[in-house]
Amino acid sequence: MSLEPLADSLLPRDGRQSPTALVVARGTQGLLLSLGLSCISELVLGSGRRADLVALGDGGEIWIVEIKSSVEDFRVDQKWPDYRMHCDRLYFATAQHVPLEIFPDEAGLILADGYGAAIIREAPEHRLHAATRRSMILSFARTAALRLQALADPSGPYEREF
């Protein structure tokens, strides 16, 4: 099955994501929603890194999902251990064609396509410090609100990237 038609229907697309990454994100976001988590993509963290997906639960729990669309994508991008200091649980999400054994046991694992996803391995829990949790929740809320404002008023003064 070609991933191109599904990828073309996803918004926003900023050029960094491959068609495979976009459909994995779509399926993973559906899974997170079904688990009671709200999700935003491409959130800039306090460290300056950008997380692929950040999910927020009713109780303030924070998950980060790092999307890997290929073996090469996983091998060249080794910044994922830095994400652990910004979340309670860290997951990788990938597509069916990527061998699951490449992903480390220290993180959870999600298998996804454009229609859904399943947790293959639960992520260990590492509870955040209160100050970090507060900072992450505020960043999540502010980013989500700015994105909604930008959708409502595309010609508004939204110069900084959010």
Total DSSP helices: 4
Portion of residues within helices: 25-40%
User: Spatial order of the strands in the main sheet?
Assistant: 1-2-3-4-5-6
**Protein structure class:** alpha/beta
* End-to-end CA span: 33 Å
Kindly list the characteristics that best describe this protein:
single chain, 162 residues, alpha/beta
Describe the structure in brief.
The chain has 162 residues and is of the alpha/beta class.
Q: Can you give a write-up of this model?
A:
This protein is of the alpha/beta class and 162 residues long. The chain has 4 helices and 6 strands. The chain has helices at 4-8, 19-34, 71-76, 130-152; strands at residues 38-44, 50-56, 62-68, 89-94, 108-113, 116-121. A 6-stranded mixed β-sheet has the order 1-2-3-4-5-6, sandwiched between helices. β1 (38-44) and β2 form a beta hairpin. Mean pLDDT is 88; it is low at 1-13.
